[in-house]
Recover the amino acids of this structure.
């Protein structure tokens, strides 16, 4: 419950405050709202284990957050982007239907998750054999999304690379800090603090990119921010996990 609260309530709310303070361009602000609305990424499970966190909590939280994202991702995105006037105007221009986003997210997250659990339960040996190929395939697919995002917006990439990188850096540090802070407020163990920091700071930016391409036609600022987040959170997560792996709990 604390992990879900951190991911779906605290992070989007503080992202709104960050956007309100910095006031980036509307498309980049939409990208920040989209990333904050997404559930935790699967790579968080590996990083939690590497950081000597609570792996069982990480895996279960990722699964629960993935299912909740079917409703919470479009809800959070619509709510916070409509409260910020520049992004509200942009969304009204694009005119997306939240229910359509729910349907797409259900297909992208809900169906694969349920099918995967069923295959793992009833055909466990087969699931174990194909799991490594799915891991490699998911990484390649994400890299393809990043390349598409950058290639479609090469001019924006050239003009805003430093600005977007700094925003992603600040946003990601905020997310990691929030996860650890919320866990501390609720007096969780050190292992669980590490887990919630990683789960809150490692977002499913691949889902964000897919939604951006589906509903926003790869809108420049949005796609660029989500793509950079997808690269940077791996770097920041590994740095933090390596540091924690060397410290006693």
């Amino acid at each position: 419950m604390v992990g879900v609260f951190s991911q779906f309530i605290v992070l989007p709310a503080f992202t709104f405050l960050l956007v309100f303070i910095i006031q980036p361009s509307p498309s980049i602000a939409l990208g920040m709202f989209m990333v904050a609305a997404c559930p935790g990424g699967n790579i968080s499970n590996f990083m939690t284990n590497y950081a000597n966190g609570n792996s069982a909590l990480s895996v279960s939280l990722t699964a629960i957050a993935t299912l909740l994202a079917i409703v919470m991702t479009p809800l959070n995105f619509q709510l916070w982007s409509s409260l910020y006037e520049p992004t509200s105007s942009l969304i009204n221009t694009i005119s997306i239907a939240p229910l359509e986003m729910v349907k797409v997210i259900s297909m992208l997250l809900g169906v694969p998750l349920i099918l995967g659990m069923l295959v793992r339960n009833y055909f466990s040996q087969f699931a174990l054999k194909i799991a490594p190929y799915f891991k490699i395939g998911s990484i390649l697919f994400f890299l393809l999304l990043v390349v598409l995002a950058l290639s479609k917006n090469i001019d924006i990439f050239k003009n805003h690379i430093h600005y977007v990188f700094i925003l992603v850096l600040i946003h990601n540090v905020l997310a990691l800090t929030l996860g650890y802070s919320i866990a501390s407020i609720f007096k969780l163990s050190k292992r669980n603090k590490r887990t919630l920091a990683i789960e809150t700071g490692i977002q499913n930016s691949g889902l964000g990119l897919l939604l951006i391409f589906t509903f926003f036609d790869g809108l420049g600022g949005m796609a660029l921010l989500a793509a950079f987040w997808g690269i940077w959170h791996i770097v920041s997560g590994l740095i933090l996990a390596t540091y924690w792996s060397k410290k006693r709990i």
